[in-house]
Design brief:
Helices cover about 35% and strands about 15% of the residues. It has about 550 residues and is an alpha+beta fold. The chain has one domain. It has an eight-stranded antiparallel sheet with strand order 1-21-2-10-11-3-4-7. Strands 8-9-12-13-19-20 form a six-stranded antiparallel sheet. The protein has a three-stranded mixed sheet with strand order 14-15-16.
Length: about 550
């Protein structure tokens, strides 16, 4: 019999009542080596992942099922039209990354201006499904079939789910942008989409049923590929069947890894943003001294986030296939000291930001198989359009290329991978996995993940408290955002440009602008799982 410790955000408790019959609260002090833990951005996805583990699946099986369910229950964040990045560690093995970056289609016009692109031209070639199938095929347990992993998502799309407070707030923010999508019947509720109403996606359910039967081939070379191409041609888009057929298995690559205060931190390599997160920690570590006050620590973190974000803007990675020497220098203590010698004064230029959102989940199974996964369609609801027969939203990753400067490493061009701030991370200590985490939030991913890792390394007691703590974000242009506005009066912060974040996605005084960290971690000898209270997520610890 399996027993559960169940952790939820307060918002999720209000919106969901999942009853696990026959399960008891785990007594503290049980053997942590036998525990499994799951945290994701929707209660439905967390429940799905836990169920796969209960049925004998491993972390890879559960990750695939979680991703499918998130694609249905968080339609604003991820799904078939996007991409997913995995950071993976089997117990005792080295951490590795599965790079499934989406890419610009062959018909991409490198001379186009961002403002000239139509919604259908703003989407990169989706790679999400190919990455999920690869993970299941090459890292799954062999005990759970592909159909079994897709079926929970089919059921939630067909029969519906009740979205929580955060997801409803996101919907209300973008309801007008979704007029065509809603009119086409892709999202339905009996009396209008409102909190407490059951939201159904019948066309998405039918598409997922095809994928359950035909795997990724039906999406990239079969019936679904035909429908995507027809939709793109009809609406001036650039994706063609040849682009979809070109999607390959994700490439296993080495992570960006570095020591931080005796911990080994591994995170996602370029074109993702893990190296900036790691650089933030290295700059922060360079400033740290014993006995500093909380205000001094906050000021040091503020400085670290800004210097790393500015360095990313001014000196980005130029080669996404050969960056080892570049990052060795960027993550050195000497380079951190050089950055700290620079003034915090900004140049007054804040680059255009197109926002960006995503989702994240983290898990570890009872055998120590850990996965940190970040999935996205980029902006909330992507480009807010879908093929009439398919029901899934296209991503908006083309927005994040650089326009008008063909020499820039992020310049828009056919075949280029999508620029990203994704930073799924795994932390180890003395050879043991101790923390698995990541976040949504565009560039705020970097600052959120860095702050949680830094807090964990300070000998934290509670993962939930660590993730609920107020956060800081600074852009590369020097614009400062504080979840606790009182911090703006800290000495030294005045050199930055203080800005108020949007407040329409607030839950109990916490702001989803500052990310949504979902993590599992080992503290005080046992595993804890925590879902960010800024979102609708849920977390579970399972002990046999």
């Amino acid at each position: 019999m399996t027993t559960f410790r169940y952790a939820r955000t307060a918002a999720a408790v209000r919106c969901y009542l999942f009853v696990f019959l026959g399960f008891l609260v785990v007594a503290a002090g049980e053997d942590a080596s036998a525990q499994a833990a799951v945290s994701s951005a929707s209660p439905e996805a967390t429940e799905t992942g836990a169920d796969i583990l209960r049925r004998g699946g491993n972390a890879a099986d559960a990750a695939v099922a979680i991703a499918f369910t998130l694609g249905v229950t968080e339609p604003a964040m991820s799904g078939l039209g996007g991409q997913i990045q995995f950071l993976i560690r089997r117990d005792g093995d080295e951490v590795f990354a599965l790079n499934g970056s989406s890419f610009a289609p062959a018909l991409t016009d490198p001379a186009i201006d961002r403002d000239e692109m139509t919604p259908y031209q703003r989407t990169t070639v989706p790679t999400w499904l190919k990455s999920l199938e690869y993970l299941w095929r090459y890292h799954g347990s062999g005990r759970i079939s592909w159909r079994e992993l897709v079926e929970p998502a089919i059921a939630y799309a067909r029969d519906g789910f009740i979205q929580g407070e955060f997801r409803q707030k996101v919907f209300l923010r973008h309801q007008e942008d979704l007029t065509g999508f809603l009119a086409a019947g892709h999202m339905q509720a009996d009396d209008g989409i409102a909190q407490g109403k059951r939201l159904r996606q019948p066309r998405l359910a039918a598409t997922l049923e095809k994928i359950a039967k035909g795997g990724s081939e039906v999406f990239y070379q079969g019936e679904i590929a035909d429908l995507i191409e027809q939709d793109m041609i009809a609406n001036g888009g650039w994706i063609r069947k040849a682009d979809l057929a070109r999607v390959a298995d994700p490439v296993p690559v080495d992570p960006v890894s570095a020591d931080y205060r005796g911990y080994q931190v591994s995170t996602f390599p370029p074109p993702a943003g893990g190296w900036i997160m790691m650089q933030t920690l290295k700059i922060y570590e360079r400033q740290r001294w014993e006995g500093w006050s909380e205000d001094e620590a906050r000021l040091a973190m503020t400085r670290s986030i800004f210097l790393a974000q500015r360095d990313r803007r001014e000196r980005p990675v130029e080669d996404f296939s050969d960056y080892t020497a570049f990052l060795d220098r960027k993550l050195s203590g000497e380079y951190a000291s050089t950055l700290l010698e620079r003034s915090l004064l900004t140049d007054g230029r804040t680059p255009q930001s197109n926002g960006g959102e995503t989702t994240h989940f983290s898990l570890i199974d009872a055998d120590g198989f850990a996965i940190s996964a970040t999935a996205s369609i980029n902006a909330y609801y992507g480009v807010r359009v879908a093929a009439p027969e398919l029901g899934f939203l296209y991503n908006s990753y083309m927005d994040d290329f650089t326009f008008g400067n063909p020499a820039h490493p992020y310049a828009i061009a056919p075949g280029k991978p999508a620029y990203s701030s994704m930073s799924p991370s795994i932390v180890t200590h003395a050879g043991e996995t101790v923390l698995v985490l990541g976040s949504p939030g565009s560039a705020r991913i970097i600052s959120a993940v860095a702050q949680v890792i830094a807090g964990y390394a300070e000998n934290a007691d509670s993962l939930e408290a660590l993730i609920a703590a107020p956060r800081i974000h600074v852009t590369g242009g020097g614009r400062l955002y504080l979840e606790n506005p009182a911090w703006r009066f800290l000495p030294g912060i005045a050199e930055l440009e203080y800005s108020e974040p949007s407040t329409d996605l607030m839950i109990e005084g916490l702001n989803a602008y500052f990310g949504g960290v979902h993590a599992v971690g080992r503290l005080r000898g046992e595993w804890q799982a925590a879902a960010d209270p800024r979102r609708d997520g849920a977390a579970l610890v399972l002990t046999p």
